[in-house]
Design brief:
Layout: E1 3-20, E2 27-39, E3 41-53, E4 59-71, E5 74-87, E6 90-97, E7 110-117, E8 123-130
Antiparallel strand pairs: 1-2, 1-8, 2-3, 3-4, 4-5, 5-6, 6-7, 7-8
Length: about 130
């Protein structure tokens, strides 16, 4: 049976540094980001993003995020694989729970979601999931 977890997150820190750049080349960066989740998903997240910026300021990114806390009151951790595109001030992203990454009461967690995040302090996130 599929469940839906609605949550919000705030970004606590964003540390981004270039690792490959040059004249006429798209800039490649790595960002270490920490988040706090509230709602059906509650806890802390840490994601490592790899990003490629185009000359127009848009970017494509991928990331792995470990979330430690609770989903609908069940405690443990899990890892999301994230992919997305940043353009016109909005990051559109899709993500899924990596098979075998769930721990504790979240062992066996499967799920996926999408989001569109603009500038602001709190961002909505929805995960459609199954447990067990």
């Amino acid at each position: 049976m599929k469940n839906v977890a609605n949550s919000r997150f705030t970004i606590r820190s964003w540390d981004e540094k270039p690792y490959s750049e040059g004249q006429g080349l798209p800039r490649l960066t790595r960002a270490a980001v920490t988040k706090t989740f509230t709602g059906d998903i509650a806890g802390e997240g840490h994601v490592e993003y790899l990003m490629m910026y185009r000359s127009d300021g848009s970017a494509t990114f991928v990331g792995l995020e470990r979330i430690v806390g609770q989903v609908a009151g069940k405690a443990g951790s899990f890892v999301l694989q994230r992919t997305g595109l940043f353009e016109n001030g909005v990051a559109k992203e899709s993500y899924f729970v990596i098979s075998g990454s769930g721990t504790g009461e979240l062992r066996g967690l499967r799920g996926e979601g999408t989001s569109a995040v603009g500038h602001g302090t709190e961002h909505p996130v929805t995960l459609t999931y199954e447990l067990g």
